[in-house]
Amino acid sequence: MSGRAFVKMHGLGNDFVVIDARKEAFIPTEEQSRLIADRRFGIGCDQFIIIENSEHPDADAFMRIKNADGSEVGACGNATRCIASLLMNETDKDNVTVETLAGLLHTKREANGLIAANMGLARLNWQDIPLSEERDTLNIGIKLPPLRNPVGVNMGNPHAVFFVEDAEAIELEALGPRLEHHPMFPERANISVASLIGEDHIRLRVFERGVGITSACGSGACAAGVAAARRGLTSRKIRVDLDGGPLFINWQEDGTVLMTGPVSTAFEGHISPELLHENK
Ligand SMILES: N[C@@H](CCC[C@H](N)C(=O)O)C(=O)O
Question: What is catalysed by this protein (predicted)?
Fold first, then answer.
């Protein structure tokens, strides 16, 4: 079979095309990354992941992350758990360390088969973003629903978490793209709406930067867990229900965030050499 081998994986429906470039380098252009992620013209995924050799003595591999729009980013929680699971199967270990642009991430296979990733320190670098009453449209051309000020949490990538009465009632499809590109977020941002649905239990919907609404966002769940605890809505250990299912978040006393959930492999294949040379 000609063409580059790939594996299609997902964490709660947040899906990835994974290419192993440890033996044979693979350096896609932005256009090639977009094409691979395209659900009509390519294979289709939320993020395109390239596994590379790491030069760090403590890392098992380096993971490069490209959003569906071709942009390269620092963190992806669900992909970290998927790649960790691949590396665990390959090495027969239950603990592996994945290097990303955001740093070294330690992972563990739990006895129940779920994969836990320590996503590192949560940085509240633009916490409690102030929005004044009169800025209730944020100049995005639509009247906002009753949103409280968002909490800004950086998990190696930027998240703005808005707590609302009912996350299902928010028109995230309309709000997401406008807020993602709002000037208050210089690097753009992943936009979440969250509501409390029980004790230490929240509902979360995420509009991902460079992608759109996804069925689950791991770093978004971490950011929401930190934001909920910071706002005093929950304790530091919570369940986050995403469209694709639950993730378990623990904002540990050392400031790092542990995320636990399932991973799946959907299929394997080869990328047609034609695809990478075609222009749409
Ligand atoms: N799906 C992700 C987040 C991927 C990156 C994000 N879209 C960004 O641009 O920061 C996850 O599981 O964390």
Answer: (2S,6S)-2,6-diaminopimelate = meso-2,6-diaminopimelate
